[in-house]
Specification:
The complex is a heterodimer of chains A (429) and B (319). Chain A is 74% helix and 3% strand. With 429 residues, chain A is mainly α. Chain A has a two-stranded antiparallel sheet with strand order 1-2. In chain A, helix 1 packs antiparallel against helix 7, helix 3 crosses helix 10 and helix 11 packs across helix 13. The longest helix of chain A has 37 residues. The two termini of chain A are 31 Å apart. Chain B has 319 residues and is mostly helical. Chain B has a domain of 210 residues. Chain B is built from 14 helices and two strands. In chain B, strands 1-2 form a two-stranded antiparallel ribbon. In chain B, a hairpin with a 2-residue loop joins strand 1 and strand 2. The longest helix of chain B is centred in the N-terminal third of the chain and has 32 residues. Chain B is globular. Chain B starts with a helix and ends in a 10-residue tail after the last helix. Classes of the chains: A mainly alpha (429), B mainly alpha (319).
Chain lengths: 429, 319
């Protein structure tokens, strides 16, 4: 979590007390993780939670690179996939050999494998940051993906490699048949990984990573090797991605070559960035929102990928701090004490934004119905609105909402700026 | 390899390489301008193919060859004007992420409009004949046409950049934008035009490449990484480097397909016909690998090797 610069000088509390306070969110998260399966009891819900937890770990690992070290990796999916394959083969071989290795510790094997590969990849990629880094990671990822087709005995062919997670036998009082058992594994690993990565961001190495992000040249001048910092960050991110991949393998009991392809790498980039790279919990938020979109929205609408892409472009263009940034600016607003004065304007902006959103959804759904899903007939209901893909009225309705929303938004935002400016002046005086 | 195979591979390799260069040249120009690789470039190639297919249904192939690239160029210019220019303030990372988002949305939009299955984009009847025969095998006129088009555009682009006033302003805007602006040229307009023209070049490649490569929603994703290999191997921002790298990748890919040789064949020469069973499944995987299977891997190996040993690329001036 980012430290608010304005608050830092006021923190005069004793270290012990602040340690207690900083521990509270973790306890809250642990309690929430324990309560979740009691609220969402159905098997499919728990399976969804498993998926979200896995993706959250994956996104957190990616943010070590993107948010903390300022490295854009275009091949992070490689380590997710390789971790998963390593875990799958580990389970298969240990089951063959008749070992009773506890299943919850399998992600350790995936992580160790990914760590070694991450060191190797990092050694190749981390000479420079920025564009060359992005290109090398893309090249390495494509190389691994293309080469995977040559080794069907490792990566399987079209159908991938499958395994049975119950083959390793019971341990810790669970036999790992039910999805709930896997949830326990995912939840514990989520806590471990999140705590480790949070701890990492506070270590000297984590702070150095931030410095490399902000000014690699000066880091060199102080006497540290930026290359080595990048390499370590890359390896750590790879290891945690390996944990996520292993958990995915345990959850789905199958790994395919697609898991280490460009789609996975793009997914984690989009998740992390949409969630917000500037706050520690941002990637988790992104993983949850995008994961839920992927699972629920894909049932409702065939346009979900389009919404996903549009949301990403929106975040890139308007709100680079991501969803977490929006959330945190809301918190700052509440604390500032001027919320009441801004409330009417903010409500107007919210309404305008909502209207624009409805317009965009209407237009997208109409376009999909007119194109890809034309076979379903022109009649449809979107957000309780009866629409017809062949009627000018439906299309006009969407256009009016979007155009009206965009046109009114500009002056409203200008007024908000002016208001905040005058409020700021008032505080100073 | 017979002389026949070599000749045809040379022809097809040149053809594929020149097609790649049509794309890589636009990408290189845009990179020199923004300092950012445009991830949506292959998507412009794809919408070029779809526009070409759609327009040629109504007015025929040759008008489509002109109209479709203009449309693609307009789309590109609009994306630069209302998208890229706004994210410029967030730095290179923001710009790069924006182009990734655009590529994502374009792929979805293409599926939304044209569906997920390949289009029936045929070679135009006027060019559907055999141009010449060598070794008793005919070479299709359309491929010859593609080759001539690519070379002609390459020549036109080279002349435009090196021999005209427009080229002078563009080149100066890439290196000294403030000074060019001081001299009274509208630099943002120059940038928008370069982006538009680069996209239009990709559009042309799409229109003429669509009938040969399959026109389908995945064509951008399958071509995009290869393009990056080319511009990085050639040296970021170097047009001549992109040219050499395009031909190199074109030859690698066509020759790899043509060579019918596997590891097993090599061992067969020395009398070993079966993999030693003791070495396990992995060795038998490698045993059956043929050169045509390795083909897709080679460009990426080349990329990684170049990045490690010559980070500025073959013809690049800066790392």
């Amino acid at each position: 979590m980012s430290v608010n610069a304005a608050e830092t000088p006021q923190q005069t509390s004793t270290p012990q007390k602040s340690g207690l306070i900083s521990g509270l969110p973790w306890v809250a998260i642990a309690v929430a993780l324990a309560l979740l399966p009691m609220i969402f009891t159905s098997n499919s819900m728990i399976s969804t939670l498993n998926y979200l937890g896995t993706m959250a770990i994956f996104a957190l690992s990616y943010n070590v690179l993107l948010g903390q070290t300022g490295l854009l990796s275009l091949g992070h999916g490689t380590f997710f996939g390789l971790g998963g394959f390593i875990a799958t083969h580990a389970v298969l071989h240990m089951a063959d050999a008749g070992w009773n290795f506890p299943l919850p510790l399998v992600p350790l094997i995936g992580a160790a494998g990914a760590l070694v590969l991450g060191f190797f990849g990092g050694w190749l990629a981390s000479g420079r940051g920025g564009m060359p880094f992005a290109m090398i990671t893309l090249g390495l990822a494509e190389l691994v993906y293309a080469a995977a087709a040559l080794f069907p005995s490792i990566y399987g062919s079209e159908e991938g490699i499958s395994m049975d997670r119950m083959d390793l036998g019971a341990s810790f009082g669970m036999d790992y048949g039910p999805t709930l058992d896997i949830y326990v594994i995912v939840a514990v690993w989520f806590l471990i990984c999140a705590a480790l990565l949070y701890f990492f961001s506070k270590t000297p190495l984590g702070l150095l990573a931030n410095s490399v992000r902000d000014n690699a040249e000066r880091v060199e001048f102080i006497g540290f090797s930026s290359k080595r910092v990048r390499m370590l960050a890359y390896a750590i991110a790879a290891a945690i991605a390996g944990v996520a991949g292993s958990l995915a393998a345990l959850n789905f009991e199958i790994m395919t070559v697609n898991e280490l392809g460009a789609a996975t790498s793009t997914l984690v980039l989009l998740m992390t960035y949409i969630g917000g790279t500037k706050h520690f919990f941002g990637p988790v938020l992104g993983a949850i929102v995008i994961g839920l979109m992927k699972i629920w929205l894909s049932d409702i609408s065939s346009a979900w990928m389009m919404y996903f892409g549009l949301l990403f472009i929106f975040v890139v263009m308007v709100q680079p701090a991501g969803l977490a940034g929006i959330l945190m600016s809301g918190v700052t607003l509440m604390r500032s004490g001027t919320f009441k004065m801004q409330a009417p304007l903010l409500a107007l902006i919210g309404l305008t934004g909502l209207a624009t959103l409805v317009g965009i959804i209407v237009l997208t759904e109409l376009a999909y119905r007119a194109g890809l899903d034309a076979g379903l007939g022109p009649q449809m209901t979107v957000l309780w609105l009866p629409l017809n893909a062949t009627s000018v009225l439906s299309w006009g309705f969407g256009f009016v909402l979007v155009a009206g929303g965009v046109l009114t938004m500009r002056p409203l935002l200008d007024r908000l700026d002016t208001l905040r400016h005058s409020l700021g002046k008032g505080e100073m005086a | 390899m017979s002389a026949e195979v070599i000749t045809f591979s040379l022809l097809n390799g040149t053809l594929y390489g020149m097609l790649l260069f049509l794309l890589a040249s636009g990408l290189t120009l845009i990179f020199s301008m923004m300092g950012v690789l445009n991830f949506a470039h292959a998507s412009f190639f794809m919408i070029g193919a779809y526009f070409g297919f759609e327009i040629s249904k109504y007015v025929g192939f040759f008008p489509a060859l002109i109209l479709a690239p203009i449309l693609v160029g307009l789309v590109g210019a609009l994306i630069e004007r209302y998208g890229l220019r706004r994210v410029h303030k967030f730095g290179h990372l923001g710009e790069l992420l924006f182009t990734i988002g655009v590529a994502f949305v374009i792929e979805e939009a293409v599926q939304m409009i044209w569906g997920r299955s390949p289009m029936d984009y045929q070679i135009p009847a006027a060019l559907d004949f055999t141009a010449f025969e060598i070794f008793g095998t005919g070479y299709p006129a359309f491929r010859l046409f593609m080759l001539i088009m690519s070379v002609a555009i390459f020549a036109a682009l080279a002349l435009l950049l090196t021999r005209t006033r427009v080229g002078l302003v563009v080149k100066a805007s890439l290196t000294h934008p403030e000074m060019v602006s001081m001299l009274g040229h509208d630099v943002p307009l120059v940038f928008m035009s370069v982006f538009g023209v680069g996209s239009a070049l990709a559009g042309i490649a799409g229109v003429i490449g669509g009938p040969i490569l399959i026109t389908q929603p995945s064509m951008a994703m399958s071509l995009g990484p290869i393009l990056f290999v080319i511009v990085v191997v050639g040296g970021l921002g170097s047009l001549s480097g992109a040219f050499v790298a395009s031909l190199l990748v074109g030859f690698i890919q066509t020759f790899a397909v043509a060579i019918d040789l596997s590891v097993a064949d090599v061992f067969g020469l020395v009398g070993v016909t079966q993999p030693p069973a003791a070495l396990g499944a992995l060795v038998s995987d490698i045993w059956n690998v043929s050169v045509s299977q390795i083909g897709p891997v080679i460009p990426y190996l080349l990329l990684v090797a170049v990045l490690i040993f010559r980070p500025m690329g073959l013809f690049g001036k800066r790392a």
